[in-house]
TrEMBL record:
One Pfam family per UniProt: HORMA
Any coiled-coil regions, as ranges: none
Protein name: Meiosis-specific protein HOP1
Nucleus as UniProt keyword: yes
GO cellular component, one term: chromosome
GO biological process terms held by the UniProt record: meiotic recombination checkpoint signaling; synaptonemal complex assembly
Keyword Nucleus on entry: yes
Domain of life: Eukaryota
Location(s), subcellular: Chromosome; Nucleus
SUPFAM superfamilies registered for this protein in UniProt: The spindle assembly checkpoint protein mad2
PANTHER family tied to this protein: HORMA DOMAIN-CONTAINING PROTEIN 1 (PTHR48225), MEIOSIS-SPECIFIC PROTEIN HOP1 (PTHR48225:SF7)
Residues in HORMA domain copies: 22-272
Length: 389
């Protein structure tokens, strides 16, 4: 007869639960900061001078943080894990991004934050028409044996379209069980996050030189109607809706997912899931991708003539704007769910972009499941011509 030895149930004291909740918020902030720094660095959104290497510390007060300063008196150990952190005071662009992140942290502290979108667009007159979006979706979990709620970042599942599968995330497991995560656990989670972001971002085509960035927050049901975090203003669900636009229904945005629902002894773990979507592979390239490949070479990289370089930059920018006018098939860029039906709906076009709004595509049925009749590219062109868009 087999016997299973059960662990004795250990209750979580209220003060320990409060400490765990505070630590969970700090861990999520550290992971968001690390992830955001990694994205902006790899995608070349800021020059290298805007970044500093941050270090993870453990402290006597059980806090976890990402910092670039020397070890303080309350910090008992540091790790060799380095993360790219945007530094304040070097450029107005970096300071503006950090101001937005501070507003996001305010919503996280109050447990109002459901998700936020870091969006990249090309036309400053049309900030809703995106070329790339990074969506961080937050969920919260009640700490075991208490009524205290804490956010947890779980990176326990794989990246879609990639073969990276990992075991249960230790930080998520610690928080759900009412325990402050250790420096080693946070270090492993940060390394996992950065590794996955690098794997995805290196697959994406380069962003155009001229680009703009914005943020959008989504709140949960407990958020007061009049709440807006610092540096944010209320938006309109329809007028401020994010979308992608491509040349045809055969060009859906590339989508990747990092994190998601993990598993643990209390059932599904909460998560901060990062959704990445990009249409950069469908944009005009400054390189001649149709030229025959003849090999590679090493050059001394002589300094480019400023006038020639500036002329080419302006021509590339104009080509991007003209291409944006020709991209008429619209795809949703707002956060979507995790079910197969919801993901299928995200890969179905919203319609055709017209002067008076978005019109439906004849023959395409958009819903959360079932088969879709999708016309070919020639049919879409015929529809566009009929709408005179």
């Amino acid at each position: 007869m087999n016997r299973t030895k059960l662990k004795a149930k250990t209750s979580v004291r209220p003060d320990q639960a409060m400490l765990t909740a505070a630590s969970s918020i700090q861990v999520v902030k550290t992971l968001i900061s690390s992830g955001f720094g990694c994205i902006t660095w790899i995608r070349g959104l800021l020059s290298d001078d805007n970044f500093v290497d941050g270090t993870l510390y453990g402290s006597k007060s059980d806090e976890m943080l990402s910092a670039s300063s020397a070890q303080g008196p309350g910090q008992v150990s540091s790790s060799s894990t380095k993360v790219k952190v945007i530094k304040r005071g070097f450029s107005t662009e970096a300071d503006s991004l950090l101001d937005y992140i501070d507003g996001i942290y305010d919503a996280l502290d109050k447990q109002y934050l459901k998700s936020f979108v870091f969006a990249i667009y090309l036309d400053e007159e049309n900030p809703n028409n995106l070329v790339e979006a990074y969506t961080f979706t937050i969920s919260y979990q009640t700490i075991a044996d208490t009524d205290i709620i804490a956010p947890v970042m779980s990176l326990a599942t794989s990246i879609s379209q990639m073969d990276l599968v990992d075991a249960e995330d230790p930080v998520a497991a610690a928080a759900v069980n009412g325990r402050v995560p250790t420096l080693g656990e946070v270090k492993r989670s940060v390394r996992l996050l950065v590794k996955r972001l690098i794997s995805v971002c290196q697959q994406l085509d380069p962003l155009p030189d001229r680009r703009f960035a914005t943020f959008k927050l989504h709140y949960n049901d407990k958020t007061p109607q009049d709440y807006e975090p610092p540096n944010f203003v209320a938006g309109d669900p329809e007028k401020d809706r994010f979308y992608f636009s491509t040349h045809g229904v055969s060009q859906p945005p590339e989508r990747f997912s990092i994190g998601g629902v993990g598993t643990g002894q209390h059932g599904a773990l909460p998560s901060v899931q990062i959704e990445i979507a990009s249409i950069c592979s469908f944009l005009p390239s400054p390189e001649d991708n149709n030229a025959p490949f003849t090999g590679h070479t090493v050059t001394s990289n002589p300094r480019s003539d400023f006038v020639v370089k500036e002329t080419k930059r302006k021509a590339d920018n104009q080509a991007q704007l003209e291409d944006a006018e020709r991209r008429r098939v619209v795809w949703d860029a707002e956060p979507f769910g995790n079910t197969e039906r919801e993901k299928e709906a995200a890969n179905t076009p919203l319609g055709i972009r017209r002067k008076d709004g978005i019109g439906s595509i004849v023959g395409v049925v958009r819903h959360t499941g079932g088969a879709h009749a999708v016309p070919g590219l020639d049919e879409v062109r015929a529809i566009i011509e009929r709408f005179h868009v």
